[in-house]
Amino acid sequence: MNFSEPFKLSGLLGRFSPDGKCLASCVQYRLVVRDANTLQVLQLYTCLDLIQYIEWSSDSLFILCAMYKRGIVQVWSLEQPDWHCKIDEGSAGLVASCWSPDGRHILNTTEFHLRITVWSLCTKSVSYIKYPKACQQGIAFTKDGRYMAVAERRDCKDFISIFVCSDWQLLRHFDSETQDLFGIEWAPNGCVLAAWDSCLEYKILLYSLDGRLLSTYRAYEWSLGIKSIAWSPSSQFLAIGSYDEKVRILNHVTWKKITEFEHPVTVANAKTIVYKEVEKSPSVETERLSFPPARALTSSLFSTQSKYDIPQVPVSLQYIKPVADRANPKMGIGMLAFSPDNCFLATKNDNIPNAVWIWDVQKLKLFVVLEQLCAVQCFRWDPRQPRLALCTGNSKLYLWSPAGCVSVQVPGEGDFQIVSLSWHSSGDSMALLSKDNFCVCYLEKR
């Protein structure tokens, strides 16, 4: 495993291009595009203000940079560096911006969610979608890029509109049976749309492409409800993470619950492997060094290393009692993700912030628990194989696969605190992001 030198970064804005050839990063108002392998600078673009969001087009030929404070989006071309496009929403303001799946239209959501403006880079035409709802996930595209669903709110009721992305014509418009629609997400096969209510009402609705309600699922009433959802890559399972610290799995045939995964404080099953991170102090004695070591060497020699122990079950995990009378209490399943091969599901229960739970999807059983020394900030699956990378806000990278678990110290001066990470599409490298820097980790090919 090799690491690049750290490079400056702002706003955690570092993204690999979809084709895997480039890596874009932002330093305040500058956009830097590097070769993903050599990290040589290919292009340097200067924007009009502080960049708050970046996104690659699907064909990796364009990058949009959104400056929400100014209500401006700037688009840059990699093939023609002299060409650029500026979209100014003016007094309407700007709160969100994204590409359409064809990589030639930009969807801007104006302030107060008055409308979504669809700008065409090819014809310079403009279309408007009225009454978009101000919610967590209000726009969803099918994986094949043919259809777009938009959550809407009009006359104090929730609606969903489905558009054809080729010409932005309305295909279906129907009211969703929600009190306060919180998010929508298509199944990977594009056949079913999940829509779920805010945390005050436990309700998830499943719609077909033509707007028919296929099923409604409620696990309980009169308590905080859904916190997160994830579709399996095969579209066979829908995992629902709830505030009651459980994950419920629905199947795609009947849309009924087939099992639920609990996240207790004590792991008692003898068949579950628990990997517990423990610190090991460096064994090098300074007096024995016959030369003054370089600063970079010193930091790696004397920084606290860590490794994984496998304690005997039962194992008690570190639990934090949530403050019940505050908004957004730190409780329930805040993160969940299926592995790309459909074999595993990784989850995090916010009451037990230092642990990641990995479930065997075929056997519907708990497989592994990783307990870290610090709270887990982010985890991501390798796009090519069942391998999970996670970070906890320190200078270590953690990797799990069915073969075992490893903790790797990022070398270099100072403390590189990894708070987010993203995989390259090949699974051979990943970008590690801290508040002010990023570096690239290259993994050995098997």
Automatic annotation (TrEMBL):
GO terms for cellular component: microtubule organizing center; MWP complex. InterPro entries: Centrosome-WD_assoc, Quino_amine_DH_bsu, WD40/YVTN_repeat-like_dom_sf, WD40_rpt. Pfam families: WD40. It comes from the Eukaryota. This is WRP73 protein. The lineage of its organism: Eukaryota, Metazoa, Chordata, Craniata, Vertebrata. The gene is Wrap73.
